[in-house]
Amino acid sequence: MTLQISLRELFSEAVKKNASDIHISVGIPPILRVDEKLVPLRHPPLEPADVRNIITTLLSEEQFERYVTRKELDLSIQVVISEEGMSVRFRGNCFFERGNMAMAFRIIPKTIRLIEHLILPKQLHDVAKKRQGLFLVTGPTGHGKSTTLAAIIQEINMTRSCHIVTIEDPIEYIFTSDRSIIHQREVGIDTESFSEALRRVLRQDPDVIMIGEMRDLETMRAALTAAETGHLVLATLHTPDAPQSVDRILDVFPPHQQDQVKLQLANVLIGICSQQLIPLPGGGRMVATELMWAIPSVRNCIRERKIPGLKSIIQTSSDFGMHTMDQDLARLIKEGKLPYELASSYAFDIKELDRMVFGEASPKFSGEGVAGRR
């Protein structure tokens, strides 16, 4: 087989098996991640020349030079996987390990699914109606944060007349302007960095700004300023829950600035959605979420940096559309959507989950249980 055909077969196989990721490295065959499990393809172990050929085929000369110089490269690509011209978009990272080239790619669905199609909390529709403030989607890598942000952006695109600017590294979902105008900027191609793009974006007449990831102090400072000056800012963080997300933002800043940042964050925060994607026994994945809204008691906790108090507010504020991750897992168990054994491995507090599922639960989560499952 020629390299081009083998590449097409590799990416086509990943799509057919509904894989989320592809891993390519020296000494092992190509490996797919399917429903969180690693599945090797029936292929001989790759030699250094094989991996180099794959990478040089996918990268431009400029990208390859940058990769070899920096030893890392984030990118997104579109690959034709069939004779009929069907193409699939991937985001990925090229890196070195033990002196050898390697790469990992994630498949990006072409269709941007809406909030209801993703079975996300219906309260996220309210975010798409906001005119200003900061909303965060958080969670581990590979648990759908970008997909959730894309669903919110698409709802704004379909329902409002706005100028939306996204800053991504790399660009993942490709939007088509509908009622809104959408400009997508990729770090390294359209701008030098997140912080540089955010410094300039306020001169581009945006209504909505989407930040692929808040990575550093300058990006966080610019995001807070943009939200404070009348823009809707949507962003992601690699944090497991709302309290840790607040702490992460505050801790990035030097101590002498934290009092001011606490006030800023308390004033501009709309809410935080933390999420996990849980693989189902029969295939596919189920989303579990934690949702916190910036009601007055939440804002007060942030101003006074009483971050541990946020959890109890979330637990007791179901009337405001809030729930903890463990409360959502308990709901999914009781609705028969997740088996207890699986859900419990994703719980933040297993004793709290057990109390809600098997013991005396709050009225919000009471009902015919699954005690027989234990």
UniProtKB/TrEMBL annotation:
It comes from Acetomicrobium mobile (strain ATCC BAA-54 / DSM 13181 / JCM 12221 / NGA) (Anaerobaculum mobile). NCBIfam families: pilT_fam (TIGR01420). One of its GO terms (molecular function) is ATP binding. SUPFAM superfamilies: P-loop containing nucleoside triphosphate hydrolases. InterPro entries: AAA+_ATPase, P-loop_NTPase, PilT/PilU, T2SS/T4SS_dom, T4SS_GSP_E_ATPase. Residues 202-216 form the Bacterial type II secretion system protein E domain. Transmembrane segments: none annotated. It holds the Pfam family T2SSE. CDD domains: PilT. The lineage of its organism: Bacteria, Thermotogati, Synergistota, Synergistia, Synergistales. Belongs to the GSP E family. PANTHER family: TWITCHING MOTILITY PROTEIN PILT. This is Pilus retraction protein PilT.
